[in-house]
Amino acid sequence: MDTTHITLSILSLIFLITILVLAVAWRKNRDKFNDALRQKVEIGNFLELFSRSLRHGDELTESMHLAAQYIAALIEAKSICIYRLRQGELTIAGVSGCYPLSQNTIMLDEAEGEDAFRRALQEEEEIKVGEGFIGRVAAKRGSLLLADAMHDEQLSEFPMERLPEQVMAVPIIRNDELSGIICAVGSTMLGRFNHEKLAQLQFAAVQVRLMLDLAESYSARSEQQRLNQELAFARQLQSGLLPDAVPSWDQIAIHARTNSAKEVNGDFYDFVRIDDDRILVVVGDACGKGVPACLLASMARSFLRAGAEHFTTLEALLREVNRNLYRDSDAERFVTLGCCLLDRKHSLMEFARAGHTEIVYFIHHHIRRVCPDGTGLGILPDEFATFDTISLEMQPGMSLLLYSDGLTEALNFDGEEFGVKRLSDELERLCEAPLAPEEVLDGIFERVQDFEPDQHDDRTAILIRSR
User: Are residues 342 and 446 in the same domain?
Assistant: First the structure.
């Protein structure tokens, strides 16, 4: 009897330990997932900042100031200074706030304005690696967190009246070589610097490095070389826009295809798992073409995935994305979106659109079209935007097509559009064949390509078939 009790006690202890280990692992994975989503949003914000500098080279300096402002807001810093390394010396590339850790004697009063402060700093600040506080940080190439900077000997070279309460500094590394430093100055009134904020600053340094790379390309290369650099950057970005694989469900087959009109694409699609039984299928189209459209698409996708983390309804999700894009993008830039929320447990599909094309679906040997009301994202403030939804039962054999207007607005040599009617007829013909979902998409793209051999807009389509 005693042996039985001992055995049960041991088993109970093992069970409790297992539960604790699983709970810790789940929390770590959750934290990693949340960090990944936060980083996607931060990348989208940085890309929007930098897209403003792609039009003219003389805007690059301003883009670095904007980056400094964004970092200051991200980590709740009083001021930020971005240093760029050139020929062994650190010069200031961007500043936010009245930065007190200048190696020179310049100390302008805050009332004189941030612009005057920036100009004075950028004209005089040149720091050799290894000399002064910033130079020593650069030489060590390591991150630094001074939670009590006013009493830290590393800042002994500065007058007491100029010492900040908190300091963080991180290196900007490119190909294992130092290319700059980001220094953040903090006030406890705004919030305390900690290791989490240091990690955010380290992550921001990666994005600043990309901006500095392109800045160098503008200053050192010909116009064609600059274009090639931009395209390489945008292709790298676009490779992360599209999911690696489509989701596989027993009841539902999903296939996607996209063709770019230029080297990079303003169209995008995504699959976001809400829970075990629901998945969000999205197709979007950022206004314009090429690099700016690709950057805007990246922003929209980041906001969408961040909002899906706390998903409630399609309407609420679209409103959140619209608020973010309206706040952070230029007035003439917007995104259209078509969203299908698939629920395999209840065999339902809910569709919403934000200024995007209607949905076309094939059921019982007939073609139907659905077009709920919805405004483009980033055009109107929240109080004026509307997003209606419609629900459909997913019946066996039903095929739904989401697409971008690059298909329906394709033009032949006579200037005639391909149109929704031709697209619907082609979907009906291919589904009646019957063909596999990927064969249906191939057939649609071949038909449009024959109609418009010289492609002038991005083409994207997703076919969803209920088995």
Answer: yes
